[in-house]
Amino acid sequence: MAPRSRGEGKTPHRTIRAEQEIWDPFGAAAKQQGEPDRSAVLRAFMAWYARLPGAKMPQRPPAEWSYQRPAAEPGE
User: Fold this and answer.
1) Which of 17, 30, 42, 55 can pair with 35 through a Cys bridge, CB separation 3.0 to 4.6 Å?
2) Residue 40: φ, ψ to 5°
3) Would residue 32 count as lying in a domain?
4) How distant is the alpha carbon of residue 63 from its chain centre?
């Protein structure tokens, strides 16, 4: 599934609830794999999960990769 450019197509906006402790590492992992945003990975996963024809499980970062929480700004 090819990533979409911002504003391309007529895909409806969807809302998902996720804890920050999951959302931030997921975004970092997507970037590590060269994905433009989380949406591309989520769409690929949903297609694979629903067993749509030709769908493949999204690639994960290598096992040695780990999420590094950004340093806190002074005063946080």
Assistant:
1) 30
2) -60, -40
3) yes
4) 17
- What range does the domain containing 39 cover? 20-49
- pLDDT tens-place string over residues 32-47: 999 988 999 999 999 9
| C-alpha span between 30 and 27 (Å, rounded) | 5
Task: Enumerate residues 6+ apart whose C-beta is below 8 A from 53.
Answer: none
Q: How far apart are CA 28 and CA 54, in angstroms?
A: 26
Instruction: Answer yes or no: are the C-beta atoms of 35 and 4 closer than 8 Å.
Output: no
Cα 15–Cα 18–Cα 24 angle in degrees, nearest 5 = 110
Please indicate, yes or no, if residue 71 is contained in any of the structural domains. Answer: no
44 in a structural domain: yes
CA distance 53 to 35: 22
Asked if residue 28 has pLDDT above 80, the reply is yes
Question: What is the count of structural domains for the chain?
Answer: 1
